[in-house]
Inverse folding.
């Protein structure tokens, strides 16, 4: 069996053919460049994990300086936008139900009187928790807000009612992203997601397109070998992937001002590994799918867990063990840790290595499957 | 005698369906053989097995002296295979397609070779045109030229002239005979009787079985058919009347003429006797044509299969 021997001239033949075809297919080429830019701008600007200016309705059954202070404090916090002040708790509820407000803050009857008497009245905050993540930051801020708001009112004889400071200080440092800027997390993550989408898709249709057009039979009738066809078809996509990565990183640096603390060459090397692993997946799909439609469906079957289970949007450690296990298999999970680590934390080779070898393992597995799945006959 | 193709017991199954059943083919070097049979009879499958595109389930033998089951790499290098459907890259230009083939086979003096081929094809001025923009006849000529680029010793052509106009068909066959004269062996599948008649021998397969083989004249003789033609205005109306009458195997039109064929001369004569007196009809005996035999073989195979 000399079926796996590699010759340069046949690889070159396939490579040239692919380059010409890619150059002619303006639509796909445009998408390969357009997709990253568009997605980066849409997701980079649209996704915000720390939502602010959430619509809030206050129902004040006890007007007075205290309730005024609380309402003002809410309004000033930037988390809440008071869209309506009413005196009917029922109306506040209706607004929550209709979705006109995400929060309803109710200051009950006799709030001021009970407060002064030291009866600890309740300040009721109702939140629309259909989306638990949306309001969590805002809700966490409320108790502190209310306490601070009251501090200026609770003076003189009322001073004992004010909350006492704790006996110790809690010092919180938000390392690597002190301002909690979502883009610092999302934009580097998008590098992984965009590459996953375009690289897998572009490669997945590589062989299926030949099969659909009937040119596959011709390719097989010539002495071209599987590995020559595979490497020849994948190589142009490596360049496209490198170009996409460069484009995304440039936009990340100069449009989204993501910090670039770590080594760019380490990032380039790990990106190349990631891209190659993805092309392995794409090529495997290519050998299984019967037509381009199936190739597309399989790509999305791979893409969805890559977005959901990789820690791109949802915190990885928040997932149950089995989901984390699936996530650990996907190359993007490791790549996200690498790219965020390098850019935001300044991680070096030593810190990055534990994420590199799983990708190498994945690449090796995907490549083996792709080569063995490649049938040299039409059976 | 040296055989370019010499295989025995060629068999291919797709699931439970037997596509090719125990077919023997032995084509001497330099001859042109025609491969006939109705659609789905197993012609394409046989050709694909010969050049290693499909794995045979059974059978042994050689193609160009190589074991066709294990040495498909070597066979591919010396065989030109022209697929039924145009299978070159429509988004590559004519020149780029030829260059690709030249690179794959690692042919020396690539540029000159491609230039010469374009010259011979008469496509120099259109070399930058995309292959997908060519008409059917030109596509077929380009495909043949591309298959011949690496100077193969064996050409496998799968219905190369389907959908090609009569003039282009004629030119194509002139080219085939020229190649054959140069010592290249050709196996060509076709539905056209005139093309089959230009072959040294024909192989007829039906439902995966080889049902006849030999030179055209011998196949016609061996069929044992007796054929009468009926000409005249009323001939058309007669077809349904005669079908199923004693001694009549089948009735077929050739242009405006009616061919009535059977095996038993006496019965056939008796059946036709009442029409002899009709002045509007001319009835005469003729040599059965290859197409008559083709229809007969197909009918018989269909009856055998059902």
């Amino acid at each position: 069996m000399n079926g796996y021997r590699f010759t340069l001239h046949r690889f070159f033949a396939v490579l040239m053919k692919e380059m010409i075809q890619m150059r002619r297919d303006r639509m796909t080429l445009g998408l390969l460049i357009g997709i990253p830019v568009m997605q980066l701008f849409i997701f980079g600007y649209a996704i915000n994990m720390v939502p602010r200016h959430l619509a809030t309705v206050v129902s004040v059954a006890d007007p007075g300086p205290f309730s005024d202070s609380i309402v003002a404090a809410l309004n000033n916090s930037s988390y809440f936008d008071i869209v309506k002040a009413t005196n009917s708790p029922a109306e506040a509820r209706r607004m929550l139900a209709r979705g006109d407000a995400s929060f309803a803050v109710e200051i009950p009857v006799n709030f001021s009187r009970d407060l002064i008497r030291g009866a600890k009245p309740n300040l009721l905050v109702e939140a629309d928790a259909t989306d638990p993540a949306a309001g969590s930051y805002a809700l966490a801020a409320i108790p502190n807000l209310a306490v601070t708001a009251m501090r200026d009112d609770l003076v003189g004889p009322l001073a004992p009612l004010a909350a006492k400071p704790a006996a110790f200080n809690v010092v919180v440092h938000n390392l690597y992203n002190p301002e909690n800027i979502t883009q610092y997390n999302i934009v580097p993550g998008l590098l992984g997601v965009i590459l996953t989408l375009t690289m897998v898709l572009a490669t997945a249709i590589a062989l299926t397109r030949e099969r659909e057009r009937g040119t596959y039979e011709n390719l097989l009738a010539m002495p071209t070998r599987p590995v020559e066809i595979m490497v020849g078809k994948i190589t142009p996509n490596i360049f496209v992937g490198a170009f996409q990565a460069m484009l995304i990183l440039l936009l990340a640096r100069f449009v989204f001002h993501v910090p670039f603390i770590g080594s760019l060459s380490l990032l380039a090397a790990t990106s190349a590994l990631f891209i190659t692993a993805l092309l392995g997946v794409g090529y495997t799909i290519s050998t299984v799918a019967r037509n381009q439609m199936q190739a597309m469906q399989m790509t999305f079957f791979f893409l969805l867990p890559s977005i959901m289970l990789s820690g791109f949007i949802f915190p990885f450690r928040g997932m149950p063990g089995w989901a984390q296990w699936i996530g650990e298999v996907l190359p993007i999970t490791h790549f996200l840790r690498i790219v965020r680590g390098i850019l935001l934390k300044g991680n070096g080779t030593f810190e990055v290595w534990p994420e590199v070898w799983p990708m190498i393992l994945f690449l090796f597995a995907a490549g083996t499957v792709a080569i063995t799945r490649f049938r040299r006959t039409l059976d | 005698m040296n055989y370019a193709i010499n295989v025995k017991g060629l068999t291919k199954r797709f699931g439970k369906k037997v596509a090719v059943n125990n077919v023997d083919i032995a084509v001497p070097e330099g001859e042109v053989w025609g491969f006939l049979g109705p659609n789905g009879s197993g012609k394409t499958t046989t050709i694909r097995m010969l050049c290693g595109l499909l794995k045979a389930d059974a059978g042994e033998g050689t193609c160009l002296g190589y074991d066709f089951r294990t040495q498909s790499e070597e066979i591919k290098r010396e065989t030109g295979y022209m697929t039924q459907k145009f299978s070159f890259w429509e988004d590559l230009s004519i020149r780029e397609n030829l260059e690709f083939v030249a690179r794959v086979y690692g042919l020396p003096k690539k540029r000159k070779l491609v230039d010469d081929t374009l010259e011979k094809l008469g496509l120099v001025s259109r070399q930058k045109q995309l292959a997908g923009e060519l008409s059917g006849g030109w596509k077929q000529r380009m495909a043949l030229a591309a298959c011949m680029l690496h100077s193969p010793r064996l050409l496998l052509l799968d219905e190369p002239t389907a959908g090609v106009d009569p003039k282009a068909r004629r030119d194509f066959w002139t080219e085939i005979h020229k190649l054959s004269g140069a010592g290249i062996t050709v196996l060509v599948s076709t539905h056209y009787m005139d093309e089959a008649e230009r072959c040294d021998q024909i192989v007829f397969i039906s439902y995966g079985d080889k049902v006849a083989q030999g030179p055209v004249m011998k196949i016609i003789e061996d069929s044992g058919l007796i054929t009468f033609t009926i000409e005249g205005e009323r001939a058309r109306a007669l077809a349904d009347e005669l079908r199923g009458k004693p001694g009549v195997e089948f009735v077929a039109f050739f242009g405006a003429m009616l061919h009535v064929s059977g095996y038993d001369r006496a019965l056939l004569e008796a059946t036709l006797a009442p029409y002899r007196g009709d002045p509007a009809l001319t009835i005469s005996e003729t040599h059965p044509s290859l197409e008559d035999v083709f229809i007969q073989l197909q009918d018989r195979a269909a009856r055998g299969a059902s």
Remarks:
- The domain at 226-287 of chain B is CATH 3.30.70.940 (Alpha-Beta Plaits).
- The CA atoms of residues 89 and 97 of chain B lie 7 Å apart.
- Chain B has two domains: 3-217, 226-287.
- The longest helix of chain B spans residues 166-181.
